[in-house]
Amino acid sequence: MKKRISIITGSRADYGLLKQLIKGISGDSSLSLRLLVTGMHLSREFGFTYKEIEKDGFKINKKINIVLKSDTSEDISKSMAYAIEGFAKEFKRVKPDIIVVLGDRFEIFSAVIAAHIAKIPIAHIHGGELTEGAFDDAFRHSITKMSHLHFTSTQEYRKRVIQLGEDPKRVFNVGAIGLDNLEKMNLLPKKTLERLLNFRFNQRNLLVTFHPVTLENDTSYEQFNNLLNALKELKDTSIIFTKANADTNGRIINSLIDGYVRQNTDKTIVFRSLGRLRYLSALRYVDAVVGNSSSGIIEAPSFKIGTVNIGDRQKGRIKARSIIDCKPTKESIQRAIKRIYSSKFQEGLFSIKNPYRGRDTVKKILKILKEYNLKTILKKNFYDLDFKYGRDLC
Question: Where are the domains of the chain?
Answer without folding.
Answer: 3-174+360-389, 190-351
